[in-house]
Write a sequence for this structure.
């Protein structure tokens, strides 16, 4: 991927040029930033992608271009919390390309003003094959001015499902909100001429026009609803509320035909996706342990695809929002070889959740 190598060389050149003008601006607690990131991703030799309905091996020689955005907040002068999203463009062995995404969060610890390291979780998907991983990062950050910083990072990640071992390196620019003076000068209070004594007016009773418990002189949010809790500034308090939808569909022995009794379960998940169009779904197929392992892997993929087809063709979900993955007999839901245990293991599973910000009631 010559284009990738050219872009990365240009990024490193920009970073090295910025060193000459960098200054040691110290970050502060509650500093917030947004940024852009670009780098390379080295896929595991065992990672495959779906291309024209066939599994293709992904090239693992740092040939996957990763570009994206990030945002973070300084929890203290040493600890930082960051979230990011990357678009992936990967080379496939024997030619062709596959596309995907990375998204995750990191907790970073700063050893000093420039060097940091951290751990995080990331979801990586290339060519329709997704995997979650634990990611370790080391990096360097320097400020170009009080608000703009550049950083360079490298690290690795280990998958939790497929046990992939993968590496990455990237360069980023970050914009910190709120100007901070790297070496503030102390200011002296100006001299004020003494004023002649004046008679003091009678004190007035503080007024709370909207009855939220915060007087008008300190209330930054007027006319707040009476049934909502407010903070010290008179503004509505919010909390995070998690909405979750799960889908479990069982199958007959040696079958990938979706039972009629399962249509209600699938429709509930489809309605949840229609209410939250920003969500995509991955359907996971499973089998019992009866039969050859290769056959069970194929059957698990057929079951996951069969449920996905019902969501698309019967309940109107966009096909681009539905993907599937087979696990064969490797992830039993119930241990044992009884008829009941085998029935529990002939299944597909899927889960979606979303976090909404809702006001706190009194």
């Amino acid at each position: 991927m010559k284009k990738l190598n050219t872009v990365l060389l240009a990024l490193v050149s920009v970073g090295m040029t910025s060193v000459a003008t960098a200054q040691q601006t110290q970050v502060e607690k509650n500093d917030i930033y947004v940024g852009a990131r670009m780098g390379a991703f080295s896929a595991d030799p065992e990672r495959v992608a779906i291309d024209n309905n066939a599994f293709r091996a992904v090239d693992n020689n740092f040939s996957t271009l990763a570009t994206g955005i990030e945002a973070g907040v300084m929890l203290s002068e040493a600890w930082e919390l960051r979230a990011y999203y990357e678009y992936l463009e990967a080379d496939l062995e024997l030619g062709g390309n596959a596309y995907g995404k990375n998204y995750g969060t990191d907790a970073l610890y700063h050893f000093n003003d420039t060097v940091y390291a951290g751990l995080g979780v990331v979801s990586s998907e290339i060519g329709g094959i997704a995997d979650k991983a634990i990611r370790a990062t080391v990096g360097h950050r320097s400020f170009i001015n009080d608000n703009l910083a550049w950083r360079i990072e490298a690290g690795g990640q280990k998958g939790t499902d497929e046990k992939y071992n993968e590496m990455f390196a990237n360069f980023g620019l970050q914009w910190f909100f709120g100007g901070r003076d790297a070496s503030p000068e102390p200011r002296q209070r100006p001299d004020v001429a003494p004023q002649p004594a004046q008679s003091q007016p009678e004190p007035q009773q503080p007024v709370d026009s909207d009855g939220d418990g915060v007087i008008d002189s300190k209330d930054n949010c007027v006319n707040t609803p009476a049934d909502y809790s407010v903070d010290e500034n008179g503004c509505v308090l919010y909390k995070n509320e998690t909405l979750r939808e799960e889908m479990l569909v069982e199958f007959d022995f040696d079958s990938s035909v979706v039972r009629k009794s399962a249509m209600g379960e699938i429709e509930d998940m489809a309605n949840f996706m229609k209410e939250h169009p920003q969500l995509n779904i991955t359907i996971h197929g499973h089998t019992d342990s009866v039969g050859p392992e290769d056959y069970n892997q194929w059957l698990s993929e057929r079951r996951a695809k069969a449920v996905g087809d019902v969501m698309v063709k019967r309940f109107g979900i966009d096909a681009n929002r539905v993907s599937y993955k087979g696990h064969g007999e490797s992830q039993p839901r119930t241990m044992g070889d009884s008829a009941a245990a085998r029935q529990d293991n002939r299944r597909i599973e899927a889960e979606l959740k979303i976090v909404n910000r809702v006001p706190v009631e009194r």
Remarks:
- The longest helix spans residues 293-313.
- Residues 240-359 form a domain with the 60s Ribosomal Protein L30; Chain: A; fold (CATH 3.30.1330.60).
- The helical segments are 2-19, 263-275, 293-313, 339-345.
